[in-house]
Design brief:
Strand order of the largest sheet: 1-3-4-5-2-6
Low-confidence stretches: 68-86, 112-135
Helix content: 40-55%
Number of domains: 4
CATH architecture of the largest domain: 3-Layer(aba) Sandwich
Radius of gyration: 25 Å
Number of helices: 17
CATH topology of the largest domain: Rossmann fold
Structural class: alpha/beta
Bound molecules: adenosine-5'-triphosphate, magnesium ion
Shape: elongated
Strand content: 5-15%
Number of strands: 6
Distance between the termini: 32 Å
CATH class of the largest domain: Alpha Beta
Length: 429
């Protein structure tokens, strides 16, 4: 704890003796802000707000405490969008032409890993498939996708199990640890690597409803009424409990973006904090908050304090079993012949889930153009895929370039230890 003036020290003693005295605590918070101890001020004000949720002075102090200039973090360039896959092709018609004599689709069938049973329709480049669905805060009812349907990524599954699922599955543990389980989980990592997919699988695992919201939609649609909107999102999730509430693009609330100049942003962050803290105890019973971001270093620190989104999980580009599952999934409805998945998996190290979807599109396009040129329809073969693979560079490379800076210069409190370990393993650090 930093050095404090004698006045702050006596006030601390007084507050410890009278923990319910809100004005006293707020006085302490005020002095802490004046002394530049913003984090401690936030903690004190948070306790005050628990006692007096509507207290205007407490709210104002919270806003001031959190409006503190943040620790300098190196600027990161925006991560470029993955280009959308080219337009589809009528394989049904093509297959009719190919006739009945079909070579085997896959050769040297490797031991089947858990293939994705029915991941979301990959109709958007990032596969999230939820564009435009946010207007009604649409809740998905429990569906078939479980963690076992996510190919590979054992590390992430283990961490999800330990940090989130195991305690929730065990009602005794839940009761025992009560409050400390209140917080949510923040998934971060390069784009297109399965964060949204994992979140949906977690909902399936809990047999819970799934409400997926992009923070950008909360902010854009209501023009200044974002707080009310945020509250409505949580209320929807509470009405639908048990419900996994997935807050995508959490960084849109970040204090480092130019949009933050928008005066309503701070209030929106505060509203989210209030909702997360579930002021009247038990309000969030059965609501499991997961959030995701590509740029965790843009996420407001206040959101990452204990009891909020305090646990983080790094979701990296798919490992070999994951790539195999993803490739199998994207080739499932296409006319393919003699595909050696194992070999293809080796050749695609570093590609994201979205890159792999793009790869399959590109290979299909090659076969299509070839068929058009020669006038004979042919199947997608291994050459189409390997040659397409050679032209696709991992879309997460720019992400890792930024992440490297953060790992080197801004790994405060070991927040990014997982990232450091991975970068070292890949000799990128
Ligand atoms: N381990 C996996 N097993 C099967 N499919 C996967 C796996 N990981 C990713 N995918 C597929 O890859 C696509 C991209 O994943 P997703 O949209 O979840 O990524 P994301 O990390 O949320 O990306 P963004 O940061 O762009 O939102 C999805 O269509 C998903 O089906
Ligand atoms: Mg996503």
């Amino acid at each position: 704890m930093p050095d404090h003036s004698p006045l702050i020290q006596s006030l601390r003693t007084a507050v410890a003796g009278a923990p319910d005295d809100v004005p006293l605590r707020l006085h302490l918070a005020e002095l802490l802000i004046a002394g530049g101890h913003h984090d401690e001020a936030v903690a004190e004000t948070a306790v005050a707000l628990q006692h007096a949720p509507g207290d205007a002075q407490a709210r104002e102090l919270m806003a001031r405490a959190m409006g503190a200039p943040r620790q300098p973090v190196p600027e990161v360039p925006p991560v470029p969008e993955v280009p959308p896959p080219p337009a589809g092709f009528n394989w049904k018609a093509a297959e009719d032409q190919v006739g009945d004599v079909l070579p085997p689709r896959f050769v040297e069938s490797p031991p089947a890993p858990e293939a994705p049973r029915s991941p979301e329709t990959p109709q958007t480049a990032d596969g999230s498939g939820d564009a435009g669905a946010a207007s009604a805060w649409e809740v998905e009812t429990p569906h078939g996708v479980r963690l076992a349907d996510v190919g590979g990524m054992q590390d992430v599954k283990d961490r999800l199990e330990a940090a989130f699922l195991a305690p929730l599955r065990n009602p005794e543990l839940r009761k025992l640890y009560g409050k400390s389980l209140r917080g949510g989980l923040l998934l971060y990592g390069p784009p297109g690597c399965g964060k949204t997919f994992m979140a949906r699988a977690v909902a399936g695992e809990l047999g819970a409803n799934f409400l997926s919201i992009s923070i950008n939609d909360v902010l854009d649609m209501w023009m200044g009424n974002s707080e009310r909107n945020m509250h409505e999102v949580f209320e929807t999730a509470r009405r639908q409990a048990p419900c996994v509430l997935f807050l995508d693009e959490l960084d849109a609330l970040g204090a480092k973006r130019s949009r933050t100049a928008h005066s309503g942003m701070r209030n929106t962050v505060n509203q989210l904090l209030t909702e997360l803290d579930g002021i009247d105890a038990g309000a969030n019973e059965g609501v499991f908050v997961l959030a995701a971001t590509n740029v965790p270093w843009d996420v407001d620190n206040a959101l990452r304090r204990p009891g909020r989104l305090d646990r983080t999980i790094l979701v990296l580009p798919p490992d070999a079993p994951a790539r195999e599952a993803i490739l199998r999934y994207h080739l499932r409805d296409r006319p393919v012949a003699n595909i050696d998945l194992r070999k293809l998996t080796k050749a695609t190290d570093g590609l994201s889930g979205a890159d792999l979807a793009h790869l399959c599109e590109a290979a299909a396009e090659r076969a299509l153009l070839d068929s058009a040129r020669t006038g004979t329809v042919r199947m997608i073969d291994m050459r189409d895929l390997t040659e397409a693979a050679a032209t696709i560079s991992p879309s997460s490379d720019p992400w890792f370039a930024s992440a490297r800076n953060v790992a080197m210069f801004a790994n405060e409190g070991g927040m990014y230890d997982d990232l450091v370990t991975y970068l070292k393993k890949k000799r990128k650090l």
